[in-house]
Write a structure and sequence with these properties.
CATH class: Alpha Beta
Shape: rod-shaped
Number of domains: 1
Number of strands: 5
CATH topology: Nucleotidyltransferase, domain 5
Strand content: 15-25%
Oligomer: single chain
Number of helices: 8
Strand order of the largest sheet: 3-2-1-4-5
CATH superfamily: Ribonuclease H-like superfamily/Ribonuclease H
Structural class: alpha/beta
Length: 232
């Protein structure tokens, strides 16, 4: 199973207001193991960056002046994610921006290139309702070292999210395995505790008393006794 852990940084919060992607990172995982293969590109948005956004990721317009436009990396990007499941934290945000960038280039939207999207924020909210579930909070909860994350950055966030995703999904597997182990152990304990059946033979006196009782019942019922010795 091929999965791509994906993250973007942008000039602002809303693509409908003309905000653009300025960084995109994608980290490959196959059969729940990071392969070391990744895609990481900075993008010149040809527009200003909101001050609030710069405080989050620290990327300035000056830094992006000599970087490629999204049109220059679009085909490389879709080739990298082609056929894989995307794993994204707060997926509607990133998917919205990526679809906008692809639409500006008259390219098919994201679902045409990938094999579905998994939103780890939605997963975390289901597992930890009422708690903070941003990436930093999840790193703390699952013991993922995020000390290198002083600012948001697409590549480092992908690497942290990969560890968080494995922890989120490994918890479900551990629960299932634990239940199976406990079930097997319970069966073994029950088997050891179950007493063995003991077969006791009737004595000659008990057999004689039984025959006498059946004879009396047969006499009273005029031969209609169901438990006569002949029937036995």
């Amino acid at each position: 199973m091929r999965q791509i852990i994906l993250d973007t940084e942008t000039t602002g919060l809303d693509p409908k207001q003309g905000h653009r992607i300025i960084e995109v990172a994608a980290v490959e995982m196959v059969n729940r193991r990071l392969t070391g293969n990744h895609l990481h590109r900075y993008v010149n948005p040809d527009r200003d960056i909101d001050a609030g956004a710069m405080q989050v990721h620290g990327i300035t317009p000056e830094f992006l002046q000599d970087k490629p436009r999204f049109t220059d990396i679009a085909h490389e990007f879709v080739d990298f994610i082609r056929g894989a499941e995307l794993v994204i934290h707060n997926a509607p945000f990133d998917v919205g921006f990526l679809n906008m960038e692809l639409r500006l280039l008259d390219m098919a939207p994201l679902p045409n290139w990938c094999d579905g999207v998994t939103d780890t924020l939605a997963m975390a909210k289901a597992l930890r309702p009422g708690q903070r579930n941003n990436l930093d909070a999840l790193c703390k909860h699952y013991g993922v070292d995020n000390t290198a994350r002083t600012l948001h950055g697409a590549l480092v966030d992908c690497e942290l999210l990969a560890a968080v995703y494995l922890a989120l999904t490994r918890g479900q597997e551990s629960l299932s395995i634990g239940l199976e182990v406990r079930s097997v152990q319970a069966d073994r304990v029950a088997a050891r505790a179950r007493p063995k059946a003991v077969l006791l033979q009737a004595s000659a006196d008990e057999l004689a008393a039984h025959a006498s009782l059946l004879g009396a019942i047969a006499q009273e019922s005029k031969g209609a006794c169901l438990w006569s010795m002949e029937q036995e």
